[in-house]
Write a structure and sequence with these properties.
mainly alpha; 5 helices; globular; 67 residues
Length: 67
């Protein structure tokens, strides 16, 4: 499973929309959608932000992305 697919699954499990996540990350919905579609690579600062939104450690998010 690709990183974007993991992000999409996690978002849906938490009941968020792409718009919700975009707002929490201070980006446009399109920018967030590109992350989920794997058209934009995710850097460490962005991964850290996403982990904080979900209340998990960065390591957990990275491990999810690697599986």
């Amino acid at each position: 499973m690709k990183v974007g697919e993991k992000l999409r699954l996690l978002r849906k499990l938490k009941g968020y929309t792409q718009e919700d996540l975009a707002e929490k990350l201070s980006v446009s919905r399109k920018v967030y959608a590109n992350l989920e579609n794997d058209t934009t690579k995710i850097d460490v600062p962005r991964m850290t932000q996403i982990a904080k939104v979900y209340g998990i450690e960065l390591e957990e998010l990275i491990n999810l992305a690697l599986v």
